[in-house]
Write a structure and sequence with these properties.
single chain; 526 residues; alpha/beta; Rossmann fold; six-stranded mixed β-sheet; four-stranded antiparallel β-sheet; 18 strands; 35% helix
Length: 526
Amino acid sequence: MPISDEMRRLQSKWLTGTAWPKRLDWVEIDGLRGWSGQRFEMKFPIMAVVGENGAGKSTVIQAAASVYAGDPGEKDRFASAFFPETTWDQVQGVEIRYSVREGSSSFTHFIRKPTGRWRRNPERKRRHVEYIDLSRIQPVAARIGFSKLANPRLTEIESEPFETKKLGRMSSILGRTYGSAKMVLTSGDTSRRVPVMSQGGSTFSGFHQGAGETTIAELLQADIPKYSLVLIDEIESSLHPRAQRRLMRDLATIARVNELQIIVTTHSPYVLEELPLEARAHILFDSGRKEIIYGVTPEFSMTKMDDLPHHESDVYVEDARAARMLIEILVRSEPSLIHRCQIIPCGASSVGRALGQMVAHNNFPRPTAVFLDGDSDPAAGCFLLPGTDAPERVVFGDLQATGWPNGLATRTGRAYPNIVDACNRAMTLPDHHDWVAAAATELVLGGDDFWQALCAEWVENCLSSADAEFVAQHLTDLLSGITPTVPIQALVQETGPVEQVNQQTPSVIATSSEVLARFPGLEPDA
């Protein structure tokens, strides 16, 4: 789905490169909770860190919280508070490296704990850091010491009302109008605050609120100054999908206005869908090693965190359009493969290339293939979809060259001349990603349904038997455990070095005849 206007405005301001005078560029973590020098990069003002429980999401935001001293007058945060030594945990040989910017100056430094204590803390730059752990917010009635506050004889002794703007944010996020909201201290305890709000003429406290209302009230009570670093653990806690989306849009607005950097951890596809590709970072934790992959789709992340045994292999493609193209190829060449292979949109082509490296090094627990769009360069561990361009350009272009097959009218139930006119007009748009939606809208069809009809006609009328067999044979071999035989070096010669994701096993990707047929002029290693 397209990103919201709020997120688009944030993206536009970020890309100017002139705002955010205080920036955290990256953090590297070494020797801590399974981290061994991997770098987390701030590619966007709001970054979402996603991964399975125990993958290291919280470690990322705790490390980020540790690299700054507080603003003057604020209490400092230290790594020792986030990563304490206990009877069971020895924290030694740890280093957190980081790079920050202030104005035009860049500062790369580290804090480390070689043995007994953390070093280099006094050299940290100053910045307000707001650390909010929503995962630990309990309903008011369940909190230790709060049960004694459920007493009608107690009186308010102090309250902090939400000002109008903050109250409006809460109403917008939760999708209902609140007349007031405040955090209250009572005569029963001068240290424990209770959220109290009113709606529709009724006033109710945290003892009678929904968990999501309590979460948002506690999240919004923090006053966050400009240029702060905001860290939120498990941002979707207790929120329904619409509220999650609204919260991300609210954060996009305040991040843009106040030039904040925000890192959130999540397991939610709704949170990921609100962010552009560059703002999504998935932590993979396989065979004891962590990898951070940027630009992932929600489908990729949800698949990696789910373990339903419905498929024998994983096949990664760049997006949903490429997935449908591949399915229609298999419908023609080997339909049985469709139910054996889980076809997963993974995001940007850079994600596909990183996954291809992992395929090449046999780093997945079950058979895995990667198909990049036809306009991509050859890459280790990856195959290209038929055609030499993006799927939309390949399908529209080939069908136009054949004079638009009559079968499109049968598949869609629309008049043939209308289909031809709509498709030809759509192809005049500069961005090929818009072609399907433009033509489908004109024909009063769903975009997915129309793309399926186009792909099916393209397979029937334009796809060569050799290309169809190439795709089916590779997946058949994959499921049969047949090892391909051409060394990675044959492709690296053509494309240059490919960034390594892991270094463990054989350097192979496909049979010699397949590679040479797909990439004319490519010569294998001697």
